[in-house]
Write a structure and sequence with these properties.
It holds the Pfam family Homeodomain. It is found in: Nucleus. Its main location: nucleus. The chain is mainly alpha-helical. The chain has a domain of 53 residues: Orthogonal Bundle (Arc Repressor Mutant, subunit A), CATH 1.10.10.60. A two-stranded antiparallel ribbon has the order 1-2. Helix 2 crosses helix 3. The chain is globular, with a radius of gyration of 17 Å. The protein starts with 6 loop residues before the first strand and ends with a helix.
């Protein structure tokens, strides 16, 4: 008797997991307007306080987690570039 594969809904998209793989949300595609605002904010400060993050997320129609992870990735990329000179 084969067990049913777990289902999950992410961003309105139905995803079926295969061989016990973790379910992952599809990669966020940021609009050019969102990227422009995020990059502009990053130039001002590399770290956002919680209220700032909440405000920015609301303004851009993103979740706080999306903003947080974008900043984490940007800092990582920035440090990598600075390291290379």
């Amino acid at each position: 008797q084969e067990r049913e594969k777990p289902l999950a809904v992410a961003n309105g998209e139905l995803r079926v997991s295969g061989k016990g793989k973790k379910l992952r949300k599809p990669r966020t595609i940021y609009s050019s307007l969102q990227l422009q605002a995020l990059n502009q904010r990053f130039q001002q400060t590399q770290y956002l306080a919680l209220p700032e993050r909440a405000e920015l997320a609301a303004q851009l129609g993103l979740t706080q987690t999306q903003v947080k992870i974008w900043f984490q990735n940007k800092r990582s990329k920035y440090k990598k570039i600075m390291k290379q000179g």
